[in-house]
Amino acid sequence: MHAFGLGTHIASNNAKSVLLLAGFPVLLLLVMYALFLLYAGLAVEAAGLDAPFLWAGAALTHAWPWALGGAGAWFGVAYFSHQALLDASTGARALARTDDPRSYNLLENLCISRGLPTPALRVIETPALNAFASGLHAGQYSVTVTRGLLETLNDEELEAVLAHELTHIRNRDVRLLVIAVFFVGIFSFVGELAYRGLTNVRWSGGGSSNRSSSRNSGGGAGLAIVAALAIVAIAYALAIVIRFALSRRREYLADAGAVELTKNPDALISALRKIAGNAAMPQAPAEVREMMIENAHAGIGEIFATHPPIEKRIEALVKFGGARG
Q1: Which pTM was predicted?
Q2: Active-site residue identified among 157, 159, 165, 294
Q3: Catalytic residue list contains 287
Q4: Burial class (CB in 10 A: 0-12, 13-18, 19+), 276
């Protein structure tokens, strides 16, 4: 679904969020079937090309209620604990008003001007310059900034960055990104785990030669293993494709929203120029870095970039935002 304006962008984000949530159980069942098929090919003694596939299908028939129950449990964990997981993965902590009244006042004034509830404010103790918003609905929204950002940007620049993150909240970008990170991102982890587990498989013990003979005579074991790997690879690829399919247009719209809030495009340009080259946070998971105001890619990596280059964002602000540049 393509989004061309703010209204269609928000509608697109809402639709993508629903699709991701609906697709999670489907992908989960697909991965489970692949793992059953892999086990059948490696360990189950059966003859015939279709035997491992029938065994895996029967196993999935008995396991799918547990899989859907696990999906529901994970939905609950992600819904109530996604912020705690984000904090644990980035080292963020809550920032009290008394710790940084400047930042709180800037954020609160922006929210008042738009009639928005004020999100919680968090800080990551790192010299890098970056920020991101998170949350699924009002009452959960949070804006996280780095210590380097707070110490480097002046009031106008920091206000512009906070306005950028508030626009992500307003446009429902944060909900889509949280769902993508915590629901789709888990499949890349499972796919990687399955691949590593396969490369370390070692079979030993009595009777292995008989099982090998049976699999070799039937020919189904090798086919089952190949099919299982193909399914896991497809699920892994789908998870990555969905993450990278998150429109980079969201950053342009958030920049435009920041200008609308602050009426100061030059402050955002100045902030982006300071952030450029100083935003790297390798300690944060790749999925979380996709949520940040800057996630630079170089060379061939630009093909898979989740953010447009800062230079292009500045060009857009100069062309359409009335900035001096």
Answers
A1: 0.74
A2: 165
A3: no
A4: middle
